[in-house]
Structures are given as C-alpha cells and as structure tokens.
Automatic annotation (TrEMBL):
Source species, domain of life: Bacteria
Record Gene3D superfamilies: 3.30.70.360, Zn peptidases
Pfam families registered for this protein in UniProt: Peptidase_M20
Source organism of the structure: Streptomyces cellulosae
Listed name of the protein: M20/M25/M40 family metallo-hydrolase
Length: 430
C-alpha cells in the first residue's frame, strides 16, 4: 500500500523538526532550550486522530534514578530539579488495557543530540536534527499505525501501546524514559524499538559502559616540568596501552578510546586530567569480562609507565606516583544487553516486510531494558541507517521513500499481529 506518509505527516515531521529537543546532557552553548513537552503534546494530538488515547504524559519520578545502572552524568544533572521536570515521556494506547499476550508495543525517542538546525524538505528528502534519529521514524510510525487502525481487530481484539520517550540520547540510555515504563508493565508480546536499522529487524541491542580514568596530581610551571605530575603524558600512555590491549580482548565487544583532556595552555604542566572510554557488548556476561579486562590492563599500564619513565628527567615524579594519583571509575556499568530469539515473531516481521538481521551486531539503544521480559519478543526496527543518514552529525537526513516503506511495514505488522491472536483466546473487556 502506498501513500501512507501523507501531506499531514510531512507537515507534522517538519513541525517536530523545527522544535528543538536536544537532550540536556548533550546541549552546548549554541543549542536552543528543549521544547520536548510541546513536541509530545503535538505528537499526542496527531496520534489521537488514529484513535490513540493518552495514558500518561508526565515527567519521571526522581526515584527512578536511585537504581543500579543509572549513569553518573544523569545523577549529577538531576540534582537540578528542572532536569527531570523538563524531560517527560508519553504513553499512548489504542484499545483497552489487555494482557501482554494481546498487546504490541512500539517505542520511539524524541530527544536528539546537539546541533539543532532549521529543517528542510525538497520533495524527496527531509534534513534536520532528528530527521532519522528519531523524529522521522516517530512520524512514520504514526502513519503506519493510523493505517493499521482501520483493521477491525486492531483495538477491538488486540491493543497497541506507543511509548514516545525522552532520555535516549546523551548517554542517558533510557534510564528515566523507557526503563520506568517497561518496569511498570507497559509492554507487549511483541515490542518494536524504532531506530534506524535499514528496515532490518535486529533482535539485539548492545549495552555500553563508560570508564573514566582520572589523574589527580600537581601542576608545575613549564620551566620546571619535573616538579609536577604530567597528566598529559600519563593519560596518553594509558590511552595507547589500553587501545592496543583491549582491541579484540573479548570477542563481540567494541572499545572506543574517546575523550582525553588535561588542559589548553602551553606554558604549564597539567597535573590533572581524564580519559574516557566507551565499551559496548552484545551479551551481559561479555560486559562483565570486558570490565575485568579494563581493570587488569589499567593496572598493567601503570606498572609499564613507571618502568618506562622512572629514569627520565622530566617525568620521574609522575612515574613514581602514577599508581597513587590515577583512579579508574565508571560513569555507567552493569547495563543489560538484548539478545532475543522467537521464530513466531521473526516470521511475523518477515511477512510484514522487515529485512533479516543477518550478521548485523546491532547498536546501543533503549531496547536493552526489554532484555528480561517474560513471554515477549523485542526487536529494533526502523528506516534509514545511523551512519549513512548522518545521525549525530551535520546534515542528518531521511528520505521520504524510506519513511513510506517503514509506515507500510508497521501497518502490515500490526494487522498480522491482530490476525495471529486466536479469536477464541481473546479476553475482551466486559
């Protein structure tokens, strides 16, 4: 079926793209304030045209951050009560509340990374922050659900849940958006997280942990570099050592040696600094192994640094005190990874037009919080690709044809799900 992504949805997407919704953890000095609450209101209004009722539109409770797995950056930001107050999530429902067996759930995030820019549409392609990640998929999802709602069984025999959440970007990883909704029971037999996958149905999502290596030493003037602790040399050594040792140390994991910062001036030795590493894994057990490897190799690197620089003139003090002034901490850790399998659900997705996952390892997104749901299957599915469509980069875009195709997949998936539930087993509300 063609023509699902009508002018109404084109206008809605441009409207949502115009309104900034940069996650506060991402925002820079040039980013406008987020208008996420307004975006969610407009999204709920458009969903009402397809018969969806707003079940909840509210900010998350502060208690949701007092949990294992919440990144330290989120905890720090939430010390300002405005942080959570300005980061609501939306829960919509088509049909009455039913058992998970008779419910299909879709999740999409409407916060973005930094770099808000005026949107454009040339008749073929939408550009703007969030075009593919994930305001474009969010609007295409609505288009598909509205088309599916014309099927008699949708809403009557099965229920559709729609989560439009905050807190996916900025390293928040759904800890105050998706996670509380799932833990409150708002999920289904089939759960679809709408992220750019090239319309491949990925039954997996990697999790990530962030290591923060901190050096807290003494500065010194450039005329006496030996008098201080050189955090630049020490952290640079650690970055190279860890990059070499951790590359492939645990199969199926990825290691990103990320930001290193000590200082910006040329006429002093900087005694303090940080090195960040992001570490992703496909299986929760692999994450535990990788954390052990990081801990071991940091200790090894410090010993090697001491041996290498102990007899130098400028870095002898740094070498002598390296272990004492260096600390390994974790901004986030202990997150679950999704690795799902269900022949029934996978066949349903294939019939609807979703492409096979093949060997795609997936990526980190909010779907990790669906890893331990009982009697449920979860997949990540959406139009466009993170890299090819320049998500998180200048010039982010999504093509109208891809949004149209995704809307069609959503329509067929919901209808096939409704038809697959045996009529005799449907428990209709009194």
């Amino acid at each position: 079926m063609s023509g699902l992504f009508t002018d109404r949805y084109r206008e809605l997407l441009l409207d949502l793209l115009r309104l900034p919704s940069v996650n506060p953890l991402e925002a820079g000095p040039g980013d406008p304030p987020s208008r996420l609450p307004e975006i969610l209101q407009r999204y709920a209004t458009a969903a009402a045209e397809a018969g969806f009722r707003t079940v909840r539109l509210a900010s998350p409770p502060a208690a949701c951050l007092d949990r294992p797995g919440v990144p330290s950056t989120v905890r720090a930001a939430a010390r300002d009560p405005r942080f959570l107050a300005e980061q609501p999530s939306l829960l919509l429902r088509l049909g009455p509340e039913r058992s998970h067996a008779h419910t299909v759930m879709f999740n999409v995030h409407l916060d973005t990374v930094a770099g808000h820019a005026p949107p454009a549409f040339d008749g073929v392609r939408f550009t703007g922050r969030g075009a593919v990640d994930a305001k474009g998929p969010a609007v295409a999802l609505l288009a598909g659900l509205r088309a599916a709602s014309s099927h008699a069984a949708v809403g009557r025999d099965v229920t559709v849940l729609l989560q439009a959440v905050a807190g996916e970007e900025g390293g928040a990883l759904g800890t105050y958006g998706t996670r509380p909704l799932l833990e409150a029971g708002h999920h289904g037999r089939l759960n679809v997280f709408c992220e750019p996958t090239g319309l491949r149905a990925l039954p997996r999502a990697t999790a990530a942990m962030t290591a923060r290596i901190t050096v807290e030493g003494a500065d010194s003037v450039d005329d006496r570099p030996d008098a201080g602790h050189n955090a630049t040399v020490l952290l640079g050594f650690l970055a190279q050592h860890l990059g070499a040792r951790l590359d492939g140390a645990v199969p199926g994991t990825r290691v990103c040696v990320a930001g290193l910062h000590t200082g910006r001036t040329h006429n002093r030795v900087h005694g303090t600094g940080t090195l960040l590493m992001n570490l992703s894994y496909r299986r929760t057990s692999d994450g535990d192994r990788l954390k052990t490897e990081v801990t071991r190799h940091v200790a090894e690197a410090l010993r090697h640094f001491t041996e290498r620089f102990a007899h130098t003139r400028e870095f002898a003090r740094t070498a002598r005190d390296a272990e004492r002034i260096t600390r390994l901490g974790w901004d986030k850790q202990g997150l679950p990874a999704l690795d799902d399998s269900d022949p029934w659900a996978e066949e349903l997705l294939a019939r609807a037009g979703a492409r096979p996952a093949a060997e795609d390892p997936g990526f980190t997104c909010d779907a990790i919080w669906a890893a331990d749901l009982d009697d449920a299957f979860t997949t990540v599915l959406g139009p466009g690709c993170l890299a090819a469509n320049r998500a998180h980069a200048p010039g982010e875009f999504v093509d109208l044809a891809d949004l149209e195709e995704f809307a069609g997949v959503v329509r067929r998936l919901v209808m096939f799900f409704a038809e697959a539930v045996p009529a005799a087993s449907v428990q209709r509300p009194p």
